[in-house]
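Q: I have 175 residues here and want to know how they pack in 3D. Can you give me a structure?
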Amino acid sequence: MTVRCGLIAVSDRATAGIYEDRGTPAMREYLARVITTPFEVVERLIPDEAEAISASIIELADVEGCCLILTTGGTGPAPRDVTPDATEAVVDRVIPGFGELMRRISHAIIPTAILSRQLAGTRGSSLIINLPGNPKAIAECLDAVMPAVPDCIDLINGPRIDLIDSVGAWRPPQS
């Protein structure tokens, strides 16, 4: 079975062709490196507009059937940074631990990480994770939270996702 993963890059400048989208390739390459289950990606490049972000998350979760949806960009405190707000508007539940851990990991590298508003939540059987826009930070944050991703997707009745051993994915022992 092939699982589907959604990748949403949120950037006014990349959407306008002023700036190259580096977030989508970083997310795609990361998943290709760590997921061993056959998967395909569904990608979206959208402007920093709350309605577009929410609509993309709904489409990828409800229509495209993506069990994991990663967003990049729009997580700071600037007025146009609305990704967490748009995400929170369409998730069933927020899972605070993802954002807390990503900020902690990032703060060890850069003190301004405390300005990040990254969050994660579930919509049906989809897990949505907001990531920063910097490709290096994307990998650092995913390294921190990826061990919990397969178990979370299991718990929300998504498809099984297996990862390379070095990621250290954890699932409860089978009884």
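Q: Anything worth noting?
A: The two ends are 25 Å apart (CA to CA). The chain has one domain: 3-167.
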